[in-house]
Automatic annotation (TrEMBL):
PANTHER family: LIGAND BINDING DOMAIN PROTEIN, PUTATIVE (AFU_ORTHOLOGUE AFUA_6G14370)-RELATED (PTHR43346), QUERCETIN 2,3-DIOXYGENASE-RELATED (PTHR43346:SF1). It comes from the Bacteria. This is Cupin domain-containing protein. SUPFAM superfamilies: RmlC-like cupins. Residues 42-106 form the Cupin type-2 domain. Pfam families: Cupin_2. It comes from Paracoccus seriniphilus.
Length: 149
């Protein structure tokens, strides 16, 4: 898959006809080629994606509604409607909805590598260790949780 099929993925449709529940978020793919993947995300209040690294992909978020906090390389950034968050490959980042309200946004990665398969494998996985194991098999490395001490 090197080029997208010509046409439109309608707002209520998913490219490839599927969507996933990943860490409590609803991810709906809108475009998928080997060069890039774009997906719509609904991120409920008080949910997050733990800090992780994409060693082979650049990632970005375009905010549509609501607010997110994004930790990039240890620095906290706040993003709201219309903002674009840039997360280059190899840089640790985590995404947090601490706003008390649902946020919606469009994510993208380039190149797509194994991310489409990753989301399919993570659909409805709730065990953090299993999430980290599956993600590592798909070129996304989650950081170990901090010590409770």
């Amino acid at each position: 898959m090197t080029q997208p099929d010509p046409g439109i993925t309608l707002s209520d449709q998913a490219y490839g006809g599927t969507s996933w529940n990943v860490v409590g978020h609803t991810y709906t793919p809108k475009l998928h080629t080997e060069n890039a993947m774009i997906w719509h995300a609904v991120i409920p209040a008080d949910t997050f994606v733990p800090p992780h690294i994409h060693p082979t992909q650049d990632e970005w978020i375009v905010m549509l509604e609501g607010n997110l906090e994004v930790e990039i390389d240890g620095e906290l950034h706040k993003a709201g409607p219309g903002d674009t968050v840039r997360m280059p490959r190899g840089i640790v980042h985590g995404i947090f909805n601490r706003s008390g309200q649902t946020a919606t946004c469009v994510f993208g990665v380039a190149p797509s590598r194994k991310i489409f398969a990753l989301f399919g494998a993570l659909d409805r996985v709730t065990d953090p260790a299993e999430l980290a194991r599956i993600s590592a098999e798909h070129e996304v490395d989650f950081l170990p949780p901090p010590d409770a001490g």
